[in-house]
Amino acid sequence: MPEEGVQLTPKSELLTAQEIITLAGLFVKEGVEKIRLTGGEPLIRPDVVDIVGQLYKLEGLKTIAVTTNGINLARLLPRLKEAGLNAINISLDTLVPAKFEFIVRRKGFHKVMEGIHKATELGYRPVKVNCVVMRGLNEDELLNFVDFTKDLPLDVRFIEYMPFDGNKWNFKKMVSYKEMLDTIKQRWPELEKLPCEASSTAKSYKVPHFQGQISFITSMSEHFCGSCNRLRITADGNLKVCLFGSSEVSLRDHLRSGASEEELVQIIGAAVSRKKKQHAGMFNIAQMKNRPMILIGG
Asked: Residue 240 in 3-state DSSP?
């Protein structure tokens, strides 16, 4: 969370629950099989359980996921699971309560841990934990995070620090995948590489006999643009075909102006066709104007 906080988007500019379901239905008809609700923070929406329930009714949708800061997770998860939620990512950059408070500008570490344990109790396998690794902040916790997977069915995903507006990105703060892997292998030389799907954004590993596993999101040092099949719609209804691209198309505005389903499909298709072969590279991205990650969603 930036020191100065973030300016909240007026409610009238956010997609309504019905608009979310309408757009989701459109994408599912076109072959999308997985939808993830991200943020800001999706679990602060009072209608989030209803949205999950409506998504669950979409024929052809196989996975409904959420990425959350975890603070409200333990309280809401039983209802979310009943509504149809079947995958969870929890953002957690530290296992030190005082450091957690420094990073997110609020208390709540123990609520996040409660949410992680609640997810495992309710049978989520794996529970994904997203950790952005930053030199000088939390790279000294790598081994602790790996150890976190020993007795819990977690997938701790180490994410290379990426440039976005407001996060004061600096190349020297970035810890590369290979550096992280080397550090972990010094402690666990028996670390095994796991197979992955062609469209996966993660490189996965496992310490033998540990319940969980670890993964690396190598967006900066080894991009996976060629196999990326992700599209993002922001909370205010803008389509982003690349996380690092500044180009956005407002589906909300077209929807509210009465665009037909066929017209929306054409607008989406045109945006996807303009998607570039790969992102501009970390140094160029750092100079580009883009939303802060907190306004895009993970």
From this structure: strand
What the block records as the tokens of 1 is 């969370």
Q: What pLDDT is stored for residue 164 in this prediction? A: 46
Distance CA 8, CA 139 (A): 31
What region, left, alpha or beta, does residue 195 occupy, with left being phi > 0 and alpha being psi -120 to 50 degrees?
beta
Strands 87-91 and 127-133: parallel
User: Does residue 71 register a pLDDT over 80?
Assistant: yes
Question: Are the beta carbons of 191 and 205 closer than 8 angstroms?
Answer: yes
Q: Which residue has the tokens 């969870």?
A: 88
Contact between residue 186 and residue 22 where contact means Cβ atoms under 8 Å apart? no
Beta strand pairing call for 192-193 and 154-160 = unpaired
The C-alpha angle 55, 291, 34, rounded to 5 degrees, equals 25
Q: For residue 78, give the DSSP letter.
A: H
Please give the model's pTM, rounded to 2 decimal places. 0.87
Q: Which of 3-12, 74-83, 281-290 holds the top average pLDDT?
A: 74-83
Which residues of the chain form beta strands (DSSP E)?
A: 34-37, 63-68, 87-91, 127-133, 154-160, 192-193, 202-206, 213-217, 232-233, 238-240, 249-250
Measured distance CA(133)–CA(159) in Å, rounded:
6
